[in-house]
Write a structure and sequence with these properties.
The complex is a heterodimer of chains A (112) and B (115). Chain A is mainly β and 112 residues long. In chain A, 0% of the residues lie in helices and 54% in strands. Chain A has a five-stranded antiparallel β-sheet, with no helix packed on it. Chain A has a five-stranded mixed β-sheet with strand order 2-10-9-4-5, with no helix packed on it. Chain A is globular and about 40 Å long. Chain B has 115 residues and is mainly β. Chain B has no helices and eleven strands. In chain B, the strands form two sheets. In chain B, strands 2, 4, 5, 6, 9, 10 and 11 form a seven-stranded mixed β-sheet that branches. Chain B starts with a strand and ends with a strand. The chains are: A mainly beta (112), B mainly beta (115). Chain A binds chain B through residues 31-32, 34, 36, 38, 41-49, 51, 89, 93, 95-105, and chain B through 4, 31, 33, 35, 41-45, 48, 50, 55-56, 58, 89, 91, 93, 95, 98-109.
Chain lengths: 112, 115
């Protein structure tokens, strides 16, 4: 069955450093992958979308890579700030109809 | 910035009762979704809706669930006979196009508690 794995342990990082989060998937080949941020008790907020033919995407301090050979996406937050503290969800998808499947997420805690 | 609006924010209902969760998607969006998140667990897909019909649904979305777009602005999720295990946060989302090109805008959710 299709499986999405994200680091379950919280990532504690000092302000100003780069946070790197991993999303691994097995038993399928997503055509695209989206990353979201979720704060406690709130809905996910869309951050970035990357397609299978794209190696890297950037948006301000965020960068995402997509390696279809390794079946992995990496999500980077550079120059991290305490306001970046949240849970980050990856959501690979194989079809265009909206069945995003979310990983369990990785919590990021940025300390001053 | 446009928002997806969900009402109510909290709903407590007795087991076996029917509930209707309401959503107002962003006005020019064409694709609509319901997801749920049981406390401490991952966000799970329920159903996607396009052109006034269901385009895909998950195994969770059984005969107890239904969706409707009764007018040009509202999108509802009905659970006919609630069970204890239906207790979760329910999120509505919308997008202007498919997920290959657009991210989804999620609402703040309705916390459903079945007692």
């Amino acid at each position: 069955s299709q499986k999405i794995e994200q680091n379950s342990e919280a990532l504690n990082i000092q302000e100003g450093k780069t946070a790197t989060l991993t999303c691994n998937y097995t038993n399928y080949s997503p055509a695209y992958l989206q990353w979201y941020r979720q704060d406690p008790g709130r809905g996910p907020v869309f951050l970035l979308l990357i397609r299978e033919n794209e190696k890297e995407k950037r948006k301000e301090r965020l960068k995402v890579t997509f390696d279809t050979t390794l079946k992995q996406s990496l999500f980077h937050i550079t120059a991290s700030q305490p306001a970046d503290s949240a849970t980050y969800l990856c959501a690979p998808a194989t079809d265009s109809w909206g069945k995003l499947q979310f990983g369990a997420g990785t919590q990021v805690v940025v300390t001053p | 910035e446009p928002e997806v609006t969900q009402t109510p924010s909290h709903q407590v209902t007795q087991m076996g009762q029917e509930v209707i969760l309401r959503c107002v998607p962003i006005s020019n969006h064409l694709y609509f979704y319901w997801y749920r998140q049981i406390l401490g667990q991952k966000v799970e897909f329920l159903v996607s809706f396009y052109n006034n019909e269901i385009s895909e649904k998950s195994e969770i979305f059984d005969d107890q669930f239904s969706v409707e777009r009764p007018d040009g602005s509202n999108f509802t999720l009905k659970i006919r006979s609630t069970k204890l295990e239906d207790s979760a946060m329910y999120f509505c989302a919308s997008s202007p196009g498919t997920g290959t090109d657009y991210g989804y805008t999620f609402g703040s959710g309705t916390r459903l508690t079945v007692v």
